[in-house]
Amino acid sequence: MLTAYRIEDGRTITSSDLAETGTKGGPFWIDLCDPSAAERELVEKVTGLEIPTREEMVEIESSSRVYQQDNTLFMTATLPYAGSKSTPEATAVTFAVNAEQLITVRHGEPLSIELFRQRLLKDPAIGSSPAQALMTLLDVIVDRLADLVELSAGEVDTMSTAIFHEGISARKSGDYKNAIRKVGSTGMMIAKVHESNATLTRLVYFLSQGATVAGLSKEQRAQLKGLARDLRSIREHGAAIDNKLNFLLDATVGLVNLEQNQIIKIFSVVAVVFMPPTLIASVYGMNFADMPELSWALGYEFSVILMLASALATWGFFRIKKLL
């Protein structure tokens, strides 16, 4: 889908027709979301730029992700988003910027792009230049990453309360399975944030080197330094959450093992408690003619009482030793 944004009479106008021109000329932002071959060819014809394909966007080499083509900077970053799967997903987004236009190419629906679009419709001043639009978009993306980290931190606090205060029971397999599943889901989200942070850090550095080509002002260059600091803070916070998640995972497995060991210990103690009665029953189960109690009228009652007394004595021993 192709959407072009232009400013007319102090308002942000959207259109899918690149042939339209407003009072200030062509669109300052062209957004390509999962574009068709025809849409890519149209943008290439109008702008004179070679739009990267989906395969080119996902390449990991730095030369494929950040490069300059004539008077335009091409920068690709990975952004997390909520896709059709239950686990967090990520999509590559390419930003092409010069003094005349900003072009974004994506094959997913990151929430940050939609948030930027809503802000742009409310405040047309954001579209005063492609550079201003790009800086605002990057600011929204970094804010979105920070929100994901804060959300993950809240999930970690909730899991800590559930594990250490409310407790989980190994007798209910769903309890610890859900706990481990939540730890894994939060860990995957932080991994997506780390991946996005790394690509955005590289993008910010490359953009600062090509600030003149992108038409960035002195204030916008200073804003880039602020974005770099924010990305560094997000990376450090994410690393701290990684450590907490590893601790929670180890603690969850450890607590389950402790409870299972307790259950096994109880079975072991019960088996030992019944060993003396079993021995007595085995002795009196022998068919010897000269057994003293064989012809005794109270022999059966004596053997039963002896078995019970031996079991109680063994149980009392374990209680004294605090093994039960």
Topology:
Elements: E1 2-8, E2 11-15, E3 29-33, H1 37-47, H2 54-57, H3 62-65, E4 66-69, E5 72-81, E6 89-97, E7 102-106, H4 111-122, H5 130-166, H6 173-209, H7 211-214, H8 218-273, H9 275-284, H10 299-320
CATH architecture of the largest domain: 2-Layer Sandwich
The CATH topology assignment of the largest domain is Beta Polymerase, domain 2
Distance between the termini: 69 Å
Strand neighbour order, sheet with most strands: 2-1-3-7-6-5-4
> What would you give as the CATH superfamily of the largest domain?
CorA soluble domain-like
Q: Based on Cα principal axes, name the global outline.
A: rod-shaped
Tell me how many strands there are: 7
SSE succession: EEEHHHEEEEHHHHHHH
Please summarize the sheet with the most strands.
7 strands, mixed
* CATH classification, class level of the largest domain: Alpha Beta
Structure annotation, total helices = 10
Sheet/helix structural class: alpha+beta
**What is the radius of gyration?**
35 Å
Overall helicity: 55-70%
Report mean pLDDT, rounded to a whole number.
84
**Tally of domains:** 2
- Low-pLDDT runs of 5+ residues are none
Membrane topology: Multi-pass membrane protein
Subcellular location: Membrane
Protein name: Magnesium transporter CorA family protein
Transmembrane segments: 266-286, 298-318
